Structures are given as structure tokens and as C-alpha cells.
Q: What sequence folds into this?
DNA sequence: TAAACTATTTCTTATATAGAAAGGCGGAAT
DNA sequence: ATTCCGCCTTTCTATATAAGAAATAGTTTA
């Protein structure tokens, strides 16, 4: 019963500081940081100085205020590239894109939700794209998420229900466990999942999960404004999604 | 002459590990990390364990290999949002976008170059966008960069020349300091900078610097494939860039 | 099954860290 | 201008932590 020797105390404190800096768009003073992290100002300052040296934090020399550093972007870009699902799936998603000409997302399961790791845009819309990559959506309210849920076993699903509250985002969000269970059964039969304005008004999505060795490793979806949805287009998208899913999984499973 | 007390040794070692993990797309073993960073494997492992706890590193439980963690994406997204230049400039860049319908970049000076912090895409092209945001281009070979150089004072410029080798990227890259100086004079007269296939074949850009309190805080540019460039379009772009620069700077300088 | 490698834990010493307190600096108020 | 006040920075030392060698556990190869 010997307690493990503690380690990385400075790292953990540094991470607290980083999280605090990442919790706001404002530049923070030493005081704000030391109060916000329960560190003495001398300790916080020494850690901050080191974080500045390694490029994780920026210090405004005039105001003495701190913000996140630019090195983090390099890390993030590399993180995305290290998700080999992105590498594998991207060419097929591009192909899908060329056929449906709508927004396409790729996501991976993360923290009881699904995290966007790739996004293909169709139009002239100028989008602030980085605000989305890395974003996490709940499983029960998105096409990708429901496609993932449809691959869960029954006890896995039960555990999901236990730990998850079905909060409505729109009037269409499914907030009832029985109804969600019905929906999941339907997805298992049809082979694709839908999001009919359940996350965002006017937004319709069709998605499918991606399995490697019978395990969910991600999901992808096509999203569009609802006014562009005709029943013929809907059928086309379903067909193309199924084809794309097959192609990607073929590669994923060697 | 008392040496400063060392601090943040673990942080710096952790950063070495992070940098190593960010230097490749491969997942790395403990051995590879301990060799690549000159840390003993026990030290490296303890740091890695902590990095996993705080979400900076991912450990594959099967292979025991390490990759970067997903928390870095959150940091990166927030970093972008903390660049308040992005907030200020975006609406004007979107307006510009709607007029020229070509790719628009926004950058900030960083490490003897210019770092992309925003990108507005015009077309149906599916772009792997995160690979660009955060990317750094040299000053002498890009429209944004040369626009920044044109705001340098003469001694500042001399210092830049001293520390910078003019490496050619294409046959059109300016690799001669006198020629570059001529070009800069021209930019100062015309008010915008050009990149005529100097960075990438077939790519033509027009850019301008953004000043706050007479200090360069960024730059933006319009990029297009050269075959779409007519002389009328060129003039239109120059005009629109000048207008956009004025509008953004008006806000930047309150 | 053994051999060879790699990951993990243990243990001890030397070292880095935490935090209080003092000192410095700059902006605000008078 | 001068004082005051708040925040940033430095100093110092007991103490908690880190480093590394070596033992152990685990895994792959032959």
C-alpha cells in the first residue's frame, strides 16, 4: 500500500495555467492566473516564464499579460495528421464531396461525443474553419453520433443512457430514451443515420460509422440546409454514403 | 553573477518530448522517445504518463506507443481566436471575398516570416485546411511578406537581409538583395505587393500590410491561379485590397 | 522454452520547487 | 511633482520532487 511517488507536479500546474488561458479570449495578468489556478504568484510566474520559453504561452511585454502561444498550432496540425483515419478517409471523402457537393465531416469518438477531425466545404461560403475542427458534439443529436450509437452493443448503449442526459438543442432533438432506441434500431436497418434539425435548425445530415475490426473508429456525414433536400437527392446521398463507407472500411481493415 | 535558479526543468523536458512527437506522424515507442530526447527511459516514461493525464499525449494501450493528444486542438483553436486581428479583420476579408471570389489569407509576422492565421476559400475545392493555418512563409517570397518588408525602416531591412538567405522556391523567386530592394520601393509607391509565381508556380498573389499605431501587426492577400488573372481583374483586386486595408486599419487604430 | 528486447517499478541521493517575504516598478491620485 | 498602492519580480531555504541505476515484469522472437 505504498503511495506512488508523486511526479509531474509542475506539469500539472502548467496544464492548469494552460487550461485557464484557453478558457477565455482575454489576455490574463499574473494575478488573474495565480488566483484562477490557486498558485502563488511567484510559482505561477516561474511556470509562465518557462512556458514562454518553450513557446506555449505568449507574454505581452507592455501589458505583462499572457495568452496562448503559437506553437500550439503546430501541435494541433500534427495531431490531425497523426489521426491516420484522416489520411485513409480523406480521398474517399473528397470523392463523395465531388458527387454531393455539400459539407462533409469526419469525426472520431471522444469523451462521450464525437470530435470533428476533418471538414470539407463545398461552397463560396467563408467559414471560420478552425472553430469547428476539434469541436465535440453529443452522440444522440448528430448523424455521426447516432451512427456510432447504432454500433454499440445493448449493454454499452445502456451505459451510455445512464451517463447521458438528453438535452434538447432544437425542437427536433430526441430527448426520450425509448424514442432514441427506436431511432437506433431504424439506423441499424437502413445502414445510415439522419439528423433532421436535431442539432441545428434548418440543418439536415446523413451519416455513417466507420468500423475497423468490428470496432468504431470514427464516422462521417453529409450536411446541408434543409431547403436543398429533395427526396431524390436524399436517396442519392444515402447511396453515396453507403458506397463511401464500404470503400473506407475496406482500406481500414486492410 | 549569481546564476539564476533553474526552474521548469520538467517542463522543458516535456516540451522536448512534445516536439519529438510533433516531428513525425508515426506513433513513437518509449525507447524512441528516450533516445530521441536524451532522457532515460524511466524519466521519459514518468513525464509521458503525466502528459497523458493532462491530455497532451495519447498512449496506445496495445502498442504502448505515443502520439500527440487531442487537447492540443482546443488550445490551437483558442490561440487563433485570441489573435484579435482575426476578429477585427474577418468581416472585411469576407466582404473582400465576396467581391473577388478568390482565396484570401490573413497572416501575422512570426519568426522572420509570416504565419497564416486565417484563410477564406472561394471554391468547391476540398482543402485540407488545418495544414495551412499556422504555416509560416518567408517574407521575401510572398505578397504578404513583401508588403510587410515594405513597412520596415532601412536599418530594420538591412538587419533582415543580414539574417536571411534568399532561397529560390521557383524560377521567379527574387534571390538578389538589390532586386528585392527595388521591388520594395515599388511596393511602397503602389501601395500593394505582388507575388508573381515566386513561391509557387502558377500562383499569383496581391497583398497589403496592416498597421496599428504605425507598427505592422499583420498582412492579408488575395491568391489565384495565374490563368484567371486579366489586367482588368488585377486592377480590381488592387483597388479592393486598398479599400479593405483602409477599412481594417480604421478599426485597428480605433 | 529460452533469449532478447521493451516497458515499468523501486529506491536513494541530489536537486528543483514552493511559498513567504522583500524589493522594484509603474500607474493613479492628489 | 510626490505619494501611494497594486502588481510584477526576485530572493532565500526547508522540503518535496526528480533522476537514474538497477531490478522486475511483460512481450515478442527464435
A:
Amino acid at each position: 500500500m505504498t503511495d506512488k511517488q508523486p511526479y509531474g507536479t509542475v506539469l500539472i500546474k502548467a496544464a492548469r495555467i494552460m487550461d485557464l488561458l484557453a478558457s477565455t479570449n482575454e489576455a490574463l495578468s499574473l494575478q488573474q492566473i495565480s488566483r484562477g489556478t490557486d498558485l502563488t504568484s511567484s510559482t505561477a510566474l516561474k511556470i509562465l516564464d518557462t512556458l514562454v520559453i518553450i513557446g506555449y504561452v505568449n507574454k505581452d511585454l507592455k501589458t505583462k499579460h499572457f495568452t496562448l502561444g503559437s506553437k500550439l498550432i503546430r501541435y494541433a496540425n500534427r495531431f490531425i495528421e497523426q489521426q491516420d483515419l484522416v489520411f485513409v478517409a480523406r480521398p474517399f471523402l473528397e470523392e463523395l464531396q465531388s458527387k454531393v457537393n455539400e459539407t462533409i465531416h469526419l469525426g472520431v469518438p471522444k469523451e462521450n461525443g464525437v470530435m470533428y477531425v476533418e471538414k470539407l466545404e463545398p461552397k463560396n461560403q467563408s467559414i471560420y474553419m478552425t472553430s469547428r475542427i476539434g469541436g465535440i458534439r453529443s452522440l444522440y443529436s448528430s448523424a455521426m453520433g447516432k451512427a456510432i450509437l447504432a454500433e454499440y452493443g445493448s449493454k454499452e448503449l445502456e451505459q451510455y443512457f445512464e451517463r447521458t442526459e438528453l438535452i434538447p438543442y432544437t425542437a427536433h432533438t430526441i430527448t426520450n430514451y425509448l424514442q432514441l432506441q427506436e431511432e437506433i434500431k431504424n439506423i441499424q436497418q437502413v445502414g445510415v443515420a439522419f439528423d433532421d434539425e436535431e442539432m441545428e435548425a434548418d440543418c439536415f445530415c446523413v451519416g455513417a460509422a466507420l468500423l475497423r475490426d468490428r470496432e468504431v473508429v470514427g464516422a462521417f456525414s453529409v450536411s446541408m440546409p434543409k431547403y436543398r433536400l429533395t427526396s431524390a437527392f436524399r436517396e442519392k446521398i444515402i447511396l453515396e454514403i453507403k458506397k463511401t463507407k464500404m470503400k473506407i472500411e475496406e482500406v481500414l481493415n486492410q
Remarks:
- Chain A has nine helices and eight strands.
- Residues 5-10, 29-31, 41-42, 45, 64 of chain A lie near DNA strand D (CB under 10 Å from a C1').
- Chain A touches chain B through 60 residues (CB under 8 Å).
